[in-house]
Design goal:
It contains 10 helices and 10 strands. By secondary structure, it is an alpha+beta fold. Strands 1, 2, 3, 4, 5 and 6 form a 6-stranded mixed beta sheet that branches. The chain has a 4-stranded antiparallel beta sheet with strand order 8-9-7-10. β5 and β6 form a beta hairpin. The model has no long low-confidence stretch (mean pLDDT 95). The chain binds (R)-mevalonate. (R)-mevalonate binds next to α5 and α6.
């Protein structure tokens, strides 16, 4: 029997744009998925992860493709030379928190242990990425990278296929956030595909949008490094405006954003795939975090109160 862990994640800046080689900022969450693996004659998969109702059903195909990819990569079969995999942990699965990346990362880590392969984190990350791609067909690599390494980082995909650029950001003074779930599960592949279709229909417009996003990223990163929370919040709001323009927001996200801003959140944007999933609310201090979470919950949405590591 062996065990492996994969962190949940939230994207502060850059979902969707990261697919096209623009840089993004992500942070691991305290919530994790844990994979337990043991040798077995016949393949068995037990999914005991907590979920937003309907998540596992909707992601069934994606999960199966990920598992097939992992079995193939680790040279395991469905019968004979096989494994039993049990997933658990406190990461509540929904789109937006990197649940599928945490699945791939935790199983890759556990299989590496079980089979005594002594893989480096980079190799584990690669295995998780291949599984993510098999699952959704469109992964940039930001989710599995954050899930494997943890912490707070910038990520830039190498579109030529070479190594991606990853900068670890130091965490000196974590800041309170609220993650509010719309309760809607989306398939990353579908939403990424819709954005790609918009880009292809009007490349000039998309280039303009990318320029706007690049400005947000540059200012956001500077503010993160300085520990200027107000400015981080302002840039998150601008990022949300840009995400609206590429049509990955939805009514539930907008209601959460509006409610949170009225309750005092200093930044509010969708995080991850969009058109559902989670909304990230920047709420420094326990008091503001409580107040914003309460206001959002009163509208009928569930929340998760945690922290991300802004420096300073
Ligand atoms: C999903 O968490 C983030 C997206 O940018 C897709 C990806 O980067 O793989 C929407």
């Amino acid at each position: 029997m062996a065990e492996g862990k994969g962190f949940g994640k939230t994207i502060l800046f850059g979902e969707h744009f990261v697919v096209y080689g623009l840089p993004a900022i992500a942070s691991a969450l305290g919530s994790v998925t844990i994979a337990k693996v043991e040798k077995a004659e016949k393949f068995e998969f037990l999914d005991e992860r907590p979920e937003t109702p309907g998540y596992k059903e909707k992601k069934k195909g994606e999960i199966e493709r990920q598992l097939d990819s992992l079995l193939e990569q680790f040279k395991l079969d469905k019968e004979g030379n096989s494994v039993k995999i049990t997933l658990s942990g406190n990461l509540i699965c929904n789109s937006g928190v990197g649940a599928s990346a945490a699945l791939a990362a935790s199983i890759s880590r556990a299989l590496n242990e079980l089979l005594g392969l002594e893989m480096s984190d980079d190799q584990i990350n690669k295995a998780a990425f291949i599984a993510e791609e098999a699952g959704s067909g469109t992964a940039s690599g930001i989710d599995n990278t954050t899930s494997v390494y943890g912490g707070f980082l910038t990520f830039e995909k190498n579109l030529e296929g070479g190594p991606n650029t990853i900068e670890r950001l130091s965490v000196q003074n974590p800041v309170e956030i609220v993650l509010a779930t719309t309760g809607i599960t989306q398939e990353t592949k579908v939403v990424v595909g819709a954005v790609r279709a918009k880009k292809e229909a009007d490349p000039e417009w998309f280039e303009q949008i990318c320029k706007q996003y690049r400005e947000v990223f540059d200012k956001g990163l500077e503010a993160v490094k300085k520990g200027d929370r107000e400015e981080v919040g302002r840039q998150m709001d601008k990022n949300q405006e840009i995400l609206r323009q590429i049509d990955v927001s939805c009514d539930e996200i907008e209601e959460i954003v509006k409610t949170a801003k009225e309750a005092g959140a200093i930044g509010a944007k969708l995080t991850g795939t969009g058109r559902g999933g989670y909304v990230l609310l920047l709420t420094p201090g326990k008091e503001l975090q409580e107040k914003v979470a309460k206001a959002v919950e009163e509208k009928g949405y569930k929340t998760l109160k945690t922290k991300v590591g802004l420096s300073k």
